Amino acid sequence: MDIYKKEQITDYPHLNLIRADYKDRGGMNKSWLYASRQNSAEPDAVVIVPFHERENKLVLIKEFRVPLGGFQYGFPAGLVDSGESIVQAGRRELYEETGLTVVNVIKQSPAIFSSAGLTDESISLLYVACDGSANIEHNEASELIEVKMLSQDQAVNCMRQDNILFDVKTWIVLDRFASTGQVV
Question: Fold for domain 45-180?
Fold first, then answer.
């Protein structure tokens, strides 16, 4: 495969549409449209996997997502601001979306991609131990969030419900937690 031209079709601050022209294995000219957040080689966003150690519960959020036209279960997440580290962004986003504070960073992934057929967006998963009382006082007006704290048994029951939409990363971590009681 040989990408010989990229054209930015839109011009927005956080997401743009790109057309890439390339030659396939057979030498045929093709085009691919995708969404892009890329401004650097660093992850664009952080997804925080919070475990409330005092409560022994995994923290999720139930958030209204416009593209789905409904609610999705996921983890707190957000874009990494300029000059901010993944850990700093994770601390900020966890607090803004749940009111909880990071007490310990357990593990950080490298840049990973969740839907490479549609976007070049990269994220870093940040596994953390957290503390505090959940609240949504610091949510932005565009965020409609409900904080969920699930025990292992509650995670099992949650996964059995047919009416819940899950983020792919959340499904994988929740499945592990439901099976083993561990997040990492």
Answer: Nucleoside Triphosphate Pyrophosphohydrolase (3.90.79)
Give first-to-last CA distance, the chain, whole Å.
36
Residue among 102, 133, 122, 132 at smallest CA distance from 169: 122
Using one digit for the tens of pLDDT, what is the confidence trace for 7-61? 999 999 889 999 999 999 999 999 999 999 876 678 989 999 999 999 999 999 9
Q: By three-state DSSP, how is residue 24 classified?
A: coil
Please state the pTM of the whole predicted model. Answer: 0.90
25-57 burial: b if 16+ Cβ within 10 Å, else e: eeeeeeeeebebbeeeeebbbbbbbbbbeeeeb
Q: From residue 119, how far is each of 34, 37, 61, 79 by CA, in Å?
A: 5, 8, 23, 15
Residue 111: CB atoms within 10 A of its CB come to 14
Sequence spans of domains, the chain: 2-36, 45-180
